[in-house]
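Hey, can you fold this one?
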Amino acid sequence: MRRPLLIALLVQSLVILFLYFIDPWGLGSALLPSSGLAGQIGIPALSDGVVAELTGVAVKSQPAKGYIAVTVRVAEIVLASDEEHAQIHSSGEKVLVRIKADPEELDAYDIAGREISVTGQLSIPDGRRNPGCFDYRLYLKGRRIFTVADVSRYRAEFGSVKRPVLHLLSRCKGRFYAAVKPYLSEEEFQLLAGLMFGDTSLMDDSLYEQFRLTGIAHVLAVSGLHVGLLYAVVLKLLKGRSVVVSAAVSGGLILVYAALSSFSVSVLRASFMITLNIAARFLKRRYDLTNAATLTAIVFLFFNPYQLFDSGFQLSFCAAYTMGVALPWATLKGIELSDKYKKKWILKAFEIFSPAVMVQLGMTPLILFHFTTFSPAGILINPVAVLLAGILLPAGLVLFLISMTGIAALTAFGAWPAGILAKLLILLSGAGQYALPGSYVPALPLAATTLYYAGFFWFFSETRVTLNRRRKYASCLAAGLLALGSACALPKALGASESMLPWRYDVHEVTFLDVGQGDCIHISKDGYNILIDGGGSLYSNIAERTLRPYLLKNGIDHIDLAVITHEDTDHALGIRQLQEIFDVRQTAVLGDSNEDCGVLLIDTGSLRLLLMSDADISREEELCAKYGKALRCDVLKVGHHGSPYSTGEQLLKCASPSFAVISCGRNNIYGHPADRVVELLAESGIIYARTDESGAVYLKKAENGMLIFENASKSTRWLIPETRQTPNTPQKQ
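Sure. Predicted structure:
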């Protein structure tokens, strides 16, 4: 019974991957809808933003850092600038509306379920901005959201309640937060909100990072663990009741809990599987965890194939399969050892520790791949963390019910044990990080990740065990090698990786990173890594937000040489911040200001790069007078982010580049790049790329006299002649 479902899921997943990465027949747009409203309004128009009035019903609302995130099911959109297609009816389409407002001034929990009308800028969400890093557009597609709208608080109007149950539950959650917050410390409240409803946006970054590095952050993401605990508590309370009563009560409560948890993927997965469990009990049939997980995955992917790429979806089902496949093997081993040595405590130890150990073995490679964290303390403290979470969740739900009474004394009394349990969980996380500190480590290559899981699930599979018992060792070995070989070849065959070797990363020789308004160039040659400038902003830590994730996702655990061309914030601050959290072995500072910034001419063997930093036209003229044609290059990094006071005709004649890169931030206050610079590049026949439009740009390949550049999302490719010839136009893919 297991094999047909597993084979169906495997085929379904391969078809989705094939259509997403390759799609030779153009079926992907039909089977994997990717544009939503963008297709009706026009993707080129949305790329620059379109002002529109949007009306619909808010189906989800929660506070985020700096704004309130509202998911709106759209009824109608009226464009401000397109009379021909001024009115668009799009019933059922979902748009993420980001309302710029202080959550304390606007009650986020009163919005869900209401009619909403907003006027703002519609746009396509960001795709992958740097190689290997987070793809926000794909993340939202996994939630069937293809368009975002940024609006001001004063351009949003809220009408009557159209979905009263959804509105009531959202109000209850807001009321609960307001009622219990005075009786808990800030950390205890944040932890309780995260554990009960998955509201990690309320958590302090340092506290959440502590939980991640100790390997117990999963208790803060509402998942199958939470739904399973709730189901177990309900069944315990309804013991002796009929199956129909148990099914009705537990199903109803789980539905309410899913709504309070904003219908996260993990909750929906667990809720669907519990529904199958209830159905099995009602029909008096055996419930099989692996079968239930497989059927659930098939159904979910049928309605939204993009969920396959969601880390939450992958982790959730990986946990389910690990419990369904590996845990029975561990339990049998515990029984065998207990019987062999006639020690009952051995089986008890297996029952306590094997779930945590097996889940850790099953989840760690995927966590490494997605989040680049390794937590040695996780195996030891996870059983205790799950135990505390298992007590805190029902205690929190009881507190939730008490808070609805509005009696402050009762709420204070109920908050006391919840606060103690939350404090114990925080202390446990801190102790784990102190004793066996977790760390950020390079991500596993994609081929190595698929290879691990092929070996992991093959080892624990019934097929391998059966072949071994029948002494069919040759067949077992052949099947295992076939599985491992296929796992290595799959990413390369689908175009998701450039190599099928498990230890190879897709690191490119030259990458112009997208660091917003700033410069950052990564050069990798023969295992030697150079970072030239690192961007920087006074409003966010660019090293934590961009540089470290990029480096670790691409398998880089150190920088051999960091070069700071001058001390301006948008060039130097990122490097200074990176030195505090990453292994930067040597740093060189070339100048103090724009006037004496370092200008670099680098020959990598594949191409010559001229990096102009923030040099102005007078500095360019000095360099041309001194070096002349020696400045010839294949690629020019345009000076001062495309400022009108840089990049003169004389430099372009001396350097004679075939390709230019302008590193600047989107909608920057300086107006970079200047129209004069863009027009001069076009008139000179020089192909150019802009990081504000394309994201990071890297050298993909250099062969047959051609340089092939690509952007991080792989949506644009530039074909550049190595020597100065008539350039080709960029090819859109």
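The CA atoms of residues 321 and 679 lie 57 Å apart. Let me know if you want another pass with a different chain boundary.
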